[in-house]
Design a protein that fits this description.
CATH superfamily: HUPs
Structural class: alpha/beta
Strand content: 15-25%
Number of domains: 1
Order of helices and strands: EHEHEHEHE
Largest sheet: 5 strands, parallel
Length: 134
């Protein structure tokens, strides 16, 4: 079995990666890193390069883990993550969430909601700022 992590070059993405690495070590499972563009095209944001992802993995200390990379090839992030989950027979998906206002906390993002409701495996949602926790 494999743990899938949705990675973006953000505080949320790094928190999710750290949590996924801890889970993979505890369960002795592989780690599949799904990376993709985030934000609107107008924001000038781009998907991280494979080199960026490998740098984040080195920082997360994945030595000894079986790691595979999966770059977004579909326009819908939710569909992409569900496809990766299916492809690797994931036992867990780890996603990072942004902190929001008290009212905003009631509103899970569209892609996250789609994945949480559609995933055939448990989903661990990690808040930013928790990188160093346990």
């Amino acid at each position: 079995m494999t743990i899938v992590v949705a990675y973006t070059p953000s505080e949320q993405g790094r928190a999710a990666l750290q949590a996924a690495v801890r889970s993979a070590r505890r369960s002795r499972e592989g780690l599949a890193v799904a990376y993709y563009e985030f934000g609107e095209a107008d924001d000038g944001l781009a998907a991280p390069s494979e080199e960026d992802v490998r740098s984040a993995l080195a920082e997360a200390d994945v030595e000894g883990l079986d790691v595979t990379l999966h770059r977004r090839s579909m326009t819908d992030i939710g569909e992409f993550l569900l496809a990766v989950i299916d492809e690797v027979s994931a036992s867990l998906l780890v996603i990072g969430l942004r902190r929001k206002s008290p009212i905003g906390k009631l509103n899970l993002g569209n892609a996250a909601r789609r994945v949480v409701l559609g995933a055939p495996c448990p989903v661990l949602a990690v808040k930013d700022g928790l990188r160093a926790a346990a």
